[in-house]
Amino acid sequence: MADAAPGEVLRLNLGTIRPYLVAEPAHVQHVLRDNAANYTRGGRSMLWRSVRQLTGDGIMADGPRWQASRGRMQPHFTAKRIDSMVDSMSRAVSDAVDELDEPARTGRWLDAGTELGRVICRSVSSVFFADRVSLADQLRIVAAQDVIVTALRLRLLLPFVPNAVPVPGDRALRRAVGVVDDIMLPLVRAERARPRDGDDLLAALVNARDEDGRPLDVQGVRDDVVSVFATATETTYAVLTWLWPILDANPEVADRLYAELDEVVGADRVISREQLLALTYTRQFVDELLRMYPAGWLVPRAAVADDVIGGTKIKAGSVVAVSSYVTQRLARYWDRPDTFDPERFRDDQPRRARAHRYAYFPFGGGPHQCLGQYLFNLEAPLVVATILSRYRFRLRDAGMPPKQLAATLRPGRPVVVALTPVRERRPA
């Protein structure tokens, strides 16, 4: 990818709108952290209004409601809590991956994205909802999210168009949000009618109080629950769906990954926390996936007041976009930026003198940095290790898929694989 001149803020010509593309890490830091109050999820950036049709006005908004929502959910994303859930998460992932045994024995072609979504849903539900969401309903939600992510594509490309003006995909989006509500609202109402003492997210939100000491209303609980489920599943799904094409295109990387899994995991069915921590190359592999294929590849913001970024005047109301996809491929910060190389994330790899904290920001930054970063950094290697320690694969369609630049960065065609069992596994 050709770099912009150092320090340059690009103005993109998209017809009736000309957003500013901010790629220089110092400028990204300015927008996301140092002057974050001036760059909101509102204004002409109508994408966020469309997103909030699904997630509501809690964690995906700004201001007091966002602060209250984030404060309620923060305790459920601490490293201590996520670490305590690793064993149950690993067992949930293992149980879900067990269902691949039959198609692997018969050599049946599988949509890798569909199977991955099923595995991730099982994992997230075990961590946050105490398995209160049935597997069938989890899959319905994932299917609805697929529709929503695609439907938001035009809203992303046309951020100035108000929601009142219909664009293709709006009806599908509304129907998909309706599917989510049909599942989640009755679940929340049932939990409120018979509250539990559990420490899962659903129970905690039903028992939570707002700043005035009142219980959250049904819609508020629903919004927080849906936000967590949507972001926790979509990020992992979008990133890991690139797993199989990347391994197919980089056989030396695949060999190193398989060798580590054979040594550390072997034939074990459920991966322990100790084994997970020992999978250093697997974690490097996931970090490199995040660098080259970040789920939240483009983040639009609206300038509240006039500002200056790198000498460029930004007028109030302007749309400013930061892109981890662009920044994380800048050649002045990354050697061979278009080459997939997990070695660049080795702990002993010396940092380049010009490296910057915001040269790598797959989870955003500043006050809106993704709450689920630590969860992803455990869950994604766990999913990769559980699947690849059991099966090898072949792709039906060779070559890297095109990129689908929708609300998240996904492969532009289904990734279809056939699996082959590696060995007989030990019982749990």
What would you say this structure looks like, in words?
The structure is a single chain. The protein has 428 residues and is an alpha+beta fold. The chain has a single domain, classed as Cytochrome p450 (Orthogonal Bundle), CATH 1.10.630.10. Helices cover 49% and strands 10% of the residues. It is built from 18 helices and 12 strands. The protein has helices at residues 25-34, 47-55, 63-73, 79-84, 86-98, 101-106, 112-128, 135-151, 153-157, 170-193, 201-207, 218-240, 243-249, 251-264, 273-278, 280-292, 324-327, 373-388, and strands spanning 10-11, 20-22, 39-40, 110-111, 299-303, 307-309, 312-314, 319-322, 391-395, 403-405, 409-411, 416-421. The strands form 4 sheets. A 5-stranded mixed β-sheet has the order 1-2-8-5-3. A 3-stranded antiparallel β-sheet has the order 4-12-9. It has a two-stranded antiparallel sheet with strand order 6-7. A hairpin with a 3-residue loop joins β10 and β11 (409-411). α5 (86-98) packs antiparallel against α7 (112-128), α7 crosses α12 and α14 packs antiparallel against α16. The longest helix is centred in the middle third of the chain and has 24 residues, at 170-193. The mean pLDDT is 86.
